[in-house]
């Protein structure tokens, strides 16, 4: 299949182009589109055959449910059984934005979206191009990240092209996704909301608005079965092995020096901050590849660059990537969750 690309001039919504993309969505095709977190792969959420195309194109296990994207708060009503006061408060405070709420689903939502669960995950993305596309499509849009399952999520249209060209009808190019990690998935079906996946909305921000917020046990206990089906799969893995460096920045620098001295593997990558790069020897040998994520103090920039860096290292043909670790506060919690998954839990 030919994959069309609509490049939004100035990364702003272009009505004529978005009408074409929206029309294809209405006809049951699947389309890559930008959001503020990562690029999504959209389908009409009410069209089962269209939704099945998503699973096929991504190679996604069919027990892993999808997020439904809407463009206005009033559209949530038809998709859910009830909206508790806490859920409403969260919607009013964080939508549009990188927060996905898991709610009891209505009859309207097909089982193929929710992988047979009686809950549905919903969010309003904070990206003008995504909002306009959904509005023009006039249907709720199912959208997982637009990558081949298991690969790092796409933060540019180019990443979507690398993974899905020829398999999808089109890609709406709205520039680089600003946040760079996916939305926070929050289960609000129980008494105390539970974070199933840390993401763009931080636990700290949620607690400021609703008080108590717990973390799914699987986020700190590797043996616990995650409540979110998607969290049990290997994720974000580049071809290279990823190993996370532990300890203070000083200790991590010491570990890098040791690796440089041993220098066993043909090509070694270091995915690190500017600060750590600055303390390394100036004359590194040719088989050492440095990928600089940003300044340690700018954890948002580091997070925004993570997935792109993982893909970049693959093009550099490194066999192992040693990754700097960062404090797990604010967005750092989502960053370290993705890194730990990319590493399959391996640390040094
Ligand atoms: O930022 C994002 O959330 C991006 C953009 C495109 O919106 N989307 C995204 O979708 O990351 P995906 O499919 O890659 O991840 C959705 C996550 C998975 O871990 C899935 O298991 C979980 O949400 N999920 C979906 N529906 C659920 C439900 N009813 N109950 C529990 N977890 C659910
Ligand atoms: Mg994903």
Which second-level CATH architecture of the largest domain applies? Alpha-Beta Complex
The structural domain count equals: 2
Strand content: 15-25%
* Backbone structural class: alpha/beta
- Small molecules held by this entry: threonylcarbamoyladenylate, magnesium ion
The CATH class name of the largest domain reads Alpha Beta
Q: What's the helix-strand series?
A: EHEEHEHEHEHEHEEEHEEHEHEHEH
Characterize the main sheet: 11 strands, mixed
Helical proportion, percent range: 25-40%
Question: How does this model look, in words?
Answer:
It is a single chain. The chain is α/β, with parallel strands linked by helices. It has two domains: 4-232, DHBP synthase (Alpha-Beta Complex); 241-343, Threonylcarbamoyl-AMP synthase, C-terminal domain (Rossmann fold), CATH 3.40.50. It contains eleven helices and 15 strands. It has helices spanning 15-26, 48-58, 85-94, 111-114, 128-137, 157-164, 203-210, 249-262, 274-278, 299-315, 332-342, and strands at residues 4-7, 31-33, 40-44, 67-69, 99-104, 119-123, 141-142, 170-173, 184-187, 194-197, 214-215, 241-244, 268-272, 288-292, 320-323. Helix 1 crosses helix 5. The longest helix is centred in the C-terminal third of the chain and has 17 residues, at 299-315. The mean pLDDT is 96. Magnesium ion is lined by residues 144-145, 153.
